[in-house]
Amino acid sequence: MSKGLPKRSENYSEWYNELVKRADLAENSAVRGCMVIKPYGYSIWEKMQRALDDMFKETGHTNAYFPLFVPKSLFEAEETNAEGFAKECAVVTHYRLKADPNNKGKLIADPDSKLEEELIVRPTSEAIIWNTYKNWIQSYRNLPILINQWANVVRWEMRTRLFLRTAEFLWQEGHTAHSTADEAIAETKQMLDVYARFAEEWMGVPVVKGTKTPNERFAGAEDTMCIEAMMQDGKALQAGTSHFLGQNFAKAFDVKFQSKEGTLEYVWGTSWGVSTRLMGALIMAHSDDNGLVLPPKLAPLHVAIVPIYKGEDQLEQIREKLKPLMTGLKSKGITVKFDDDDQTRPGFKFAEYELKGVPVRIAMGMRDFDNGTIEVARRDTMEKQTVELNAQTDEFIKSLLDDIQTNIYQKALDFRKQNTFIVDTWEDFKKQIELGGFLMCHWDGTSETEEKIKEETKATIRCIPLDAVEEEGTCVYSGKPSKKRVVFARAY
RNA sequence: CGGGGUGUAGCGUAGCCCGGUAUCGCGUUUGGUUUGGGACCAAAAGGUCGUCAGUUCGAAUCUGGCCACCCCGACCA
Questions:
Q1: What is the pLDDT of residues A108-154, one digit of tens each?
Q2: CA(A424)–C1'(B42) in Å?
Q3: Can you give the distance from the CA of residue A245 to the C1' of nucleotide B68 in angstroms?
Q4: Which nucleotide is nearest to A344 (CA to C1')?
Q5: CA–C1' distance A69–B74 (Å)?
Q6: Residue range(s) defining the domain that contains residue A379
Q7: What was the pLDDT predicted at A87?
């Protein structure tokens, strides 16, 4: 492990890439555009999964699993959806290989094994799932269906970046079916709230809840809601989406139910998802030049203890002295590691735990040992303090962890506030967008204006915020009347 | 797919213009001394210089083809 990360302020994207690699989160693989998620990175993802999964269960959902492959004819069924994803689909055309007669030791796809119908590697699962739901739904008594799936999907992206955009990624996708539009809309909103709560309470990342414009809407949805987060370079990151599908998929797959009144009606649907992209959001929202900063609620390791000693005797003395504290912490559900690795020195360990974002570090050498104290360092502020070691120390650490969780959220929220601007003129818009941040502007509601702004500034409408206040205004670009401000930003 | 660039040890690199079998750092191995902020000393292992062909007594170096990857655009959770 070499010293020092690139500076965040000098080259944000290089800083990000290096951080992901050095903190042992993920690395590029031999497969173009696909990453290897390393054990440390995966353990963070597992914590995210668990928290989200619990929230899904609390809101009445259950998990199921559907196939990786979608027959092309099913994929085509919902036209808007199919067209939206067509240009980034991996397609399976053969089912076996054979020795290449012209090239010894090489294999080719056996021409005799050509599939009669090609299989699409799922970029999203609406098609295969709605085709299945058709068989599950006959009556209003079968509704609602509230299912979530944890899976991998493939979208053949041109340019990829670890966690933010990879050709294959891990995610969850919820797919629900309802008897009324109102119920489906309520579900869409409920899951958006779940995502927002997860982002803010667990990841410590404040988000703007809103609705996408038709341009940015999910292909096949009637309405797409999203949560948008601000990264430390002022760019926006879409962190999660929740779609109201209307009856689009029900019509495409002929999914009807008999109502209480005896009428035959199409089912209303929703789908919602978050992906390993959340890892990217987590990294970019909090980390600094020393490495990762993890919110305690998602940190695989909460407290690293570094003993500073000469010889086995001192190590054992320190270990014994800290045993009650470690027991106390563990009983409070706090994960602790006593790092007695003799191969690396304390300074190296300090740097390493900082790089990996461990929220709290405790050090004890003979000086502390004699004084009955420990040195406690918090990762978020890098502050160190000497604390008396007694029966209350575990409580102190617990509240410190809570404090760190609150603090990093507050810090991110303050950052977002400082980088959110009310912009009313096109001149200001062009200036401000170069500096980054969220621009709150009036927009005339047309796709044309949205596209022109994108062409000229690379900024897109991230969302129409749910809490936008009604006010009279004029579009920042066209000058036409507008009633609400929307969020413009450059995005990942 | 358009524009630019790069392939040399596990990683990062020098050498290339001006041809003579490869430099340095990190990491690794062994031994010793160390341990309150990324230790030091000593020794060692590790490279068909992306690939194929050509020029030459001789190619990492010159020429051509191919392949891969990276960056910038269009696309995107």
A1: 888 899 999 999 999 999 999 999 999 999 999 999 999 999 999 99
A2: 70
A3: 42
A4: B35
A5: 28
A6: 303-400
A7: 85
User: Distance in angstroms, CA of A109 to C1' of B55?
Assistant: 40
Q: Could you tell me the distance in Å between the CA of residue A221 and the C1' of nucleotide B50?
A: 47
Q: Are residues A265 and A315 in the same domain?
A: no
- Asked if residue A152 and residue A17 are part of one domain, the reply reads yes
User: Is the pLDDT confidence value at A1 over 80?
Assistant: no
In a domain, A81, yes or no: no
State mean pLDDT over A291-295.
96
pLDDT tier for residue A18 given thresholds of 50, 70 and 90: confident
Which positions of strand B lie within 7 Å of protein CB atoms?
A: 1, 26-27, 34-39, 68-77
Query: Closest CA to B72 C1' — which residue?
Result: A159
- pLDDT tens for each residue of A241-287: 999 999 999 999 999 999 999 999 999 999 999 999 999 999 999 99
Its ipTM equals 0.85
Residue A38 has pLDDT above 80, yes or no: yes
Asked whether residue A112 is domain-assigned, the answer is no
In whole angstroms, give the CA distance from residue A362 to residue A350: 10
Domain count, chain A: 3
Distance, angstroms, CA A71 to C1' B50?
Answer: 39
Percent of chain A predicted with pLDDT > 70? 99
Residue nearest to nucleotide B69 (CA to C1'): A32
- Nucleotide with minimal C1' distance from the CA of A168 is B77
Determine the distance between A144 (CA) and B15 (C1') in angstroms.
70
CATH number (domain holding residue A345): 3.40.50.800
Considering only CA atoms, name the residue closest to the C1' of nucleotide B38: A348
Using the CA of A315, which nucleotide's C1' is the nearest one? B35
Are residues A232 and A133 both part of a single domain?
Answer: yes
Strand A145-154 versus strand A168-178 pairing type: antiparallel
Q: Is the pLDDT of residue A2 over 50?
A: no
